[in-house]
Amino acid sequence: MTVVNEKSILWAKRSAVYTLSQRAVSTEALRKKIVERAGRKFENIEEAEARALADAAITFCTENGFLNDELFAEYRVAEGVRKGHSKRKIAMNLADKGIAREDAQSAVSELEDMEAALNLARKKGYGPWRRVEADQKRIAKEAAAFARNGFSSEITWKVIRMPESDVDEHG
Question: Any idea where the domains of the chain sit in the sequence?
Answer without folding.
Answer: 6-63, 69-108, 113-170
